[in-house]
Design goal:
It is built from 12 helices and 11 strands. It has 296 residues and is α/β, with parallel strands linked by helices. Strands 1, 2, 3, 10 and 11 form a 5-stranded parallel β-sheet that branches. It binds zinc ion (ZN).
Length: 296
């Protein structure tokens, strides 16, 4: 889209799920009656995000939930036609901590095949539902590699206390694992109080804090580490997005914060930085041959 040959500075990612995929009430998937009481909203919300990105020709990586891809194939095909990278967000939206290895393997295969059936190509990238939150979740990376993904972008070891954070390497940047899988972690920043937080990652910080906070921390991450992987969700631009009955009050409160301003903040963010998909931003890394197959 841009004649500029330099790769984009930062990666923009969207986890494509609907309002009822929030599993924070820990009761498993939403029931059909609960979903139909409001109906799907992802088509409208992702459509608005795609319109926003089209305004200045920004491309992103869209991690589709298999279930959403099957229910809204036109959405997937539109995103693909507009040049966005299509990634995978699993099939059912359950955190890896609640899954057996065989169950996760079957879930990822089903999602990857559903997406490949619709667009003709298997997605190369994966984002875990609810992220990979620490060393206890890292077993999933072997499964993600086994299914055939070239990269994962899910590692966000949140610790809301000071002290050491379990990074995959001595730095906050990309890591290649022994299986050949690349991990492009969500950007963490060490702040003055000693806490390590995802200040440059989007999500809560983008919704609830002034835009200048996110801008400052993306610039700092770019200076100190490299490209940041920023994320958002379709529901984050939807002030009317509901919550399932039984969702904890604290989750409702946190998820409600700042939704009205997110679309405008995103518009300013993609005007300020050159954003692209993960495939574009990390083309060098993804183009390197796997360690097991030198020269291939
Ligand atoms: Zn998700």
């Amino acid at each position: 889209v841009q004649p500029n040959a330099r790769p984009p500075e930062n990666a923009l990612t969207i986890d494509v799920e609907d309002w009822f995929h929030d599993g924070s009430r820990r009761l498993g998937p939403a029931r059909p009656a609960e979903i139909s009481s409001v109906g799907p909203r992802v088509e409208r919300n992702l459509g608005a995000l795609l319109d926003l990105l089209a305004e200045n020709g920004t491309r992103a990586t869209l991690f589709f939930l298999g279930e959403v891809a099957r229910a809204h194939p036109a959405l997937l095909l539109r995103a693909r036609a507009e040049g966005h990278e299509i990634g995978c967000h699993g099939d059912q939206h359950l955190p890896v901590a609640e899954r057996a290895r065989s169950e996760l393997l079957a879930d990822l295969r089903r999602a990857r095949e559903s997406i490949a059936d619709l667009i003709g190509d298997a997605p190369r990238g994966f984002r875990s539902p609810c992220f990979l939150r620490g060393p206890e979740d890292l077993w999933a990376l072997e499964v993600i590699s086994e299914v055939g993904f070239a990269y994962d972008s899910s590692y966000m070891p949140l610790r809301y206390r000071r002290g050491p954070v379990p990074l995959l390497a001595a730095h906050f940047g990309p890591v290649r694992l022994p299986t050949g899988l690349w991990e492009f972690p969500l950007p963490l920043t060490r702040i003055a109080t000693g806490h390590v937080l995802p200040c440059a990652a989007g999500g809560f910080a983008l919704r609830a804090l002034p835009l200048s906070f996110t801008v400052r921390h993306i610039e700092r991450f770019n200076r100190c580490v490299g490209p940041a992987v920023v994320y958002t969700h379709p529901w984050e631009i939807d002030p009317g997005s509901p919550k399932l009955p039984g969702t904890p009050a604290v989750v409702r409160a946190f998820n409600r914060l700042g939704r009205r301003g997110v679309a405008d903040k995103l518009r300013q963010l993609v005007a300020r930085f050159r954003f692209g998909s993960i495939a574009e931003v990390f083309a060098d890394e993804l183009g390197r041959s796997a360690p097991e197959h030198p020269g291939s």
